[in-house]
Design a protein that fits this description.
mainly alpha, single chain, about 120 residues, globular, Rossmann fold, 3 strands, 3-stranded parallel β-sheet
């Protein structure tokens, strides 16, 4: 999804279809103002959407996964990526399998608070 409207529409479609809990995804890269600003925006959007959808019983959460091994992160200079990965305690970054496992383990957890941001490991 490319816009915040798309994220909210996804939640509304899920409600109409009787399924789904909207999820919002954000990322951060050290020294990158746009990434930091987008992360703050994702966190704020998560809280607002959680409040708006609470009357329908929908929980909303954002997930901070750290760098995930994708074509985009492979384009980051190795030294910069190593610095980020070392800071979060994952020398090789996060694999897609680890990211999916983390989200699945947390999305149905009884202690997951709507409007929260859940971080994988020490990200955040």
């Amino acid at each position: 999804l490319r816009t915040t409207d798309g994220v909210v529409d996804l939640g509304e479609r899920g409600l109409r279809d009787g399924a789904g809990e909207p999820r919002v995804h954000g990322s951060e890269a050290e020294g990158e103002a746009a990434y930091v600003a987008s992360k703050a925006a994702v966190e704020a959007l998560t809280k607002v959407v959680a409040k708006e959808l609470a009357p329908q019983g929908v929980r909303v959460a954002a997930f901070g996964l750290g760098p995930v091994d994708t074509r985009l992160t492979r384009a980051v200079p190795k030294a910069a990526l190593a610095k980020i990965n070392d800071a979060i305690g994952r020398p090789q970054g996060t694999t897609m399998a680890q990211a999916v496992d983390f989200i699945v383990s947390r999305i149905s957890a009884p202690d997951l608070k709507s409007g929260s941001v859940e971080y994988f490991g020490t990200v955040g």
